Amino acid sequence: MRGFFILLWALVIFILTCTASFSALKESGQVHFQWDSHPNFSELLAPFPLELTHDFLLQKCGHAIAFLILTILLQTKFRSKAWILFLAISFASLTEILQLYFTRDGRIFDIAIDLIGILLASGSRSLFTTPQSKQTHL
Questions:
Q1: Rounded CA separation 85/126 (Å)
Q2: Residue 25's closest CA among 110, 102, 111?
Q3: Is the overall model pTM greater than 0.90, yes or no?
Q4: CA pair distance 8, 13, nearest whole angstrom
Q5: Tell me, what DSSP letter sits at residue 44?
Q6: Is residue 108 exposed (0-12), middle (13-18) or buried (19+ Cβ within 10 Å)?
Q7: How many CB atoms lie within 10 A of CB 88?
Q8: Over the stretch 26-77, which tens digit does the pLDDT of each residue have?
Q9: Mean pLDDT, to the nearest integer, of 127-136?
Q10: pLDDT of residue 5
Q11: Average pLDDT score, the chain
């Protein structure tokens, strides 16, 4: 059942990041995909914008929160911190690359913002779990 929720949340992230118009999705709930078979990969290297609008900041908070939730869900299924980080970071990278194919802006700095959510979830797990004591038998 945990795996189902992970896949469901990954699908939600995919829809939110790859729908042709995030504003249309936000305003009317309209999901529309548009395929670009020859994306411009140099867009991944676009710099962080100097002008930070409310919508831009809201989207970036959404990135961090979406991957925080994904990481928490992964933590319920897997024990290995390395495996959880690998899965979450890989999916963050994949969604940014896929956005280029779906006529959206994929950016490396978005992966860094996703990483903030991933690390917050990982760090909070460390705060709320107690290490198991090692018992030695004499």
A1: 14
A2: 102
A3: no
A4: 9
A5: G
A6: middle
A7: 25
A8: 888 888 899 999 999 999 999 999 899 998 999 999 999 999 999 999 999 9
A9: 60
A10: 97
A11: 90
Rounded Cα gap, residues 86 and 74, in angstroms: 11
Positive/negative CA dihedral, 23, 109, 96, 49: positive
| Alpha-carbon torsion (108, 114, 119, 122), positive or negative | negative
Largest CA distance in the chain: 68
What phi-psi label fits residue 29: left (phi over 0), alpha (psi between -120 and 50 degrees) or beta? left
Note the pLDDT of residue 89: 98
The answer to whether the Cα torsion of 13, 68, 88, 1 is positive or negative is negative
Residue pair 75/121 in contact by the 8 Å Cβ criterion: yes
Amino acid sitting at position 122: S
Please provide the DSSP assignment of 40-107 as one string. Answer: -GGGGGPPPPSS--HHHHHHHHHHHHHHHHHHHHHHHH---HHHHHHHHHHHHHHHHHHHHHTTS---
101, amino acid identity: Y
d(CA 8, CA 14): 10
